[in-house]
Amino acid sequence: MSGRRRRPDRTRHGRDRRAEVLMPEPGRERFTGDAPSAGVVGGGIAGLAAATALAERGVRVTLYERGESLGGRLAGWPVRLADGSGATMSRGFHAFFRQYYNLRGLLRRTDPGLTSLTPLPDYPLRHRDGMADGFARVPRTPPWSALGFVALSPAFGWRDLAAMNPREALPLLDVGVPEVYERFDGVSATDFLHRINFPEAAHHLAFEVFSRSFFADPRELSAAELLLMFHIYFLGSSEGLLFDVPREPFPQALWEPLGGYLRRLGAEVRTGTAVHRVGGPADGDLVVESDGAADRHQAVVLALDTDGLRHVVGGSEQLGDASWRNGIAALRTAPPFLVSRLWLDRPVREDRAGFLGTSGFDGLDNISVLDRWEGESARWAARTGGSVVELHAYAVQAGTGPEEVRRRMLDRLHEVYPETKSARVVDARHEWRADCPVFPVGGYHRRPAVRTPHPRVTLAGDLVRTGLPVALMERAATSGFLAANALLAGWGVRGQVLWTVPRAGRSRALRALAGRAARR
Question: Which of 158, 174, 246, 518 has its CA at a distance of 20 to 30 angstroms from the CA of residue 425?
Fold first, then answer.
């Protein structure tokens, strides 16, 4: 990736005039004639992005996915409910923020107008003490976004702003990658907020909700990730904090169309196929060993979750050097989380938000009323007179089992939305998982990068360092494109153009002030 910029086309990618475009290395448009083959291991967002970029340029792609469907941690699968209805279960709610330029660009391959996504009107937050907040009325463009938040938020007022430690808070205004990690990866998110004298009410109401979206306790989360989050979603971008959600379950809305697109490009998509080993010398073909097959490829993208990457690299003695392999083996996952989806026999009150972030409710992190936006759930609710509600609990404390978390979440649902207490649960499905990456204090430099010691093996996924201000699903999509671009550059083919929020603070004067504070 050359890092060259060009003027954004905001009609396709967003409203931020300062969004940056990163041009790939120069090269020919695509392969003609005999093209190399590439194996992409993992069919989540990162693998789909890598496979798409490679296949569009004529590479012969085989996509391996151990699950029965595409989507990775956003996959879905059919279930039969107790009332005989068919439904699609998944790991639940995900917010598609407008800053997710590269993910949205991937989805535009099959949905140019992004009609499969629908906006939610607000990002409401509620603490158990009764304090509530939201972002619908907050201006989107910095610095007015920060000033508007202070003016409108009950959790953060002008007195709180005046009481903050200005010297310690200045880094919020000049976040760059990797500099933010060099300065703040050794500090926890909680300690950083205390250092700048961030008001406790806002800490618990807003930024605990955000930090737990990384599936981490803020006491364990790197402050660098927190600062990056401030930059991406609030102080560095004018896209705002509102977001979109899919109109239908993930498979139907997103991944089945994209899988069909890859097949039309000539890619072979193998679901239900686990890869166990990748072998081959640096100067020869690579062999991908999967269930019942061994395929030769000229390059491989490993787009796996933490456990999957450890498994494949651990079984692939020829990949990488000892230091790199030991780093992969040392990766760990975030604490477990629980998703509970409930089909209720009566509706949730009409004025309830489709999504609500919660704090202080015994580990309940958010509530979604799926029938407010998802077509499948809405049709079930219309047919039965009921509702479909989803509860999330992130970063569950060690020693707490899923049954206890289920009980607590249901009790807290009844507290937050009292009308649900009298509802009968027609059916319930629960997902207890512990497979998300963790971004602990001091962990940045131990995370793997896109390039590996093997010149024709690259990594992708939300656990991978990209050198760009991206997070969560956007980090997955961006890393997938970067993994493909690295291979394409080696073949002299131009890769995918990437977008990002500004890679530095928006104000030159404030950046200079932050720089002087850092040098003191």
Answer: 246
